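Why does residue order matter? Because the sequence determines the fold. Keep that principle in mind as you read this record.
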Amino acid sequence: MNTDSLLRGSFKNIHVRFVLAKTTETVRTGIFTHNTDPVSSHIFGSAITSAALLSSLLTEDERYSVQWNYDGLIGGVVVDVNANAHVRGIPKNTSLMSAISKADLYGEKGHISIIKSVEGKILNSGTSEAAMLNVADDVSFHFSTSDQIETEIVSAINFNADPENPVEIATGFMMQALPGCDLELFEKMRNAIKEETFIEIMTQEGNDEKKLQQALKYVYEKSGSESPEDIREIASYEFSNSPVYQCTCSKEKMQKALRTIDPNELKELLERPEGIKLKCDFCHTEYIIKDL
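Structure:
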């Protein structure tokens, strides 16, 4: 049973959008799929959680594809997500335990590319410097600079010492300034969600809706405003699609890709007794194609 969740809404009076995602099961599946070590798991989990948060900005058949590239040991991470919060991804380096510092992991520079598409057609795309050298922070920086929507994302992942159940909790929170927002107030709020107290609220056990209410109350009060006893007086929210790690590959899509090969070469490959063996990089599902 999937216990992950996503709540999204906005503060009615200050024009700030927010999203809270619990991605424990989604991150766990991603880790098991790619057999990532603890360091790689943390980075990949942050990428998965960031993508789950972005799903709240999509409608119908839209999809975000996010690619991070760093000149450190991480190399790169690719994650995509649709409006149903179905996430899949590829970590370039699954073994990062040899790194002894953040500089080893991220290097000195990088870039991030985000593509928004629908049914294979690109709606918009952009590339920006990965100036923050942090997966979640670089998504925030991209939206704030490239899309000119002030954005802040934080993710938090706690691990268990149990290899069969490595993720205790994975969660993330996103805020965006909507038109009419006081940016000085938003700056106070974005700083608040980076504080240790806020992270503790996010990672505590308990009801997801009550956790969101507590988080919103904390952020609102940190902005210098007095929060009502019931935060729902100034903030509205709803449950959205629960995140899940789910690939979109299929035998039919693999066959379609093969049709781009030279017909003579393809004919020779199909005539082999073992057929053509293909493997999806996102979920590691193997396909044997013997005909088109």
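The longest helix spans residues 38-54.
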